[in-house]
Design brief:
Order of helices and strands: EEEEEH
Helix content: under 10%
Shape: elongated
Strand content: 25-35%
Number of strands: 5
Strand order of the largest sheet: 2-3-4
Distance between the termini: 43 Å
Number of helices: 1
Radius of gyration: 15 Å
């Protein structure tokens, strides 16, 4: 496994933030466990007319803390992006 060197990235200010330290104990040196690539936001249903359009995608990586063993995702998408246009059915 390869230790992650994580830096702040995003489409705009506060679009997403990558973690360099454990969410629980604050230890550095998270260990990459699983890379699921770039994924669209969950529960963001696409209307049939928009099916061919590009969707915003974000990295979905899982890492393990070497100190406390917490498994955690390495990127956090801003709540405004996740829930700003939240809908449960296509428009």
């Amino acid at each position: 496994m390869l230790a992650l060197n994580i830096e702040r990235r995003g489409e705009g200010p506060r679009a997403r933030a990558a973690r360099a330290r454990c969410r629980s104990c604050g230890a550095a040196g998270l260990i990459a466990v699983l890379d699921l690539g770039m994924q669209p936001l969950a529960n963001r249903l696409v209307d049939e007319s928009d099916a061919g359009c590009d969707e915003l995608r974000f990295p979905l990586d899982l890492a393990c803390c070497p100190r406390c063993s917490l498994l955690q995702i390495t990127e956090s998408v801003s709540p405004a992006l996740l829930f700003g246009d939240f809908r449960t059915s296509p428009r």
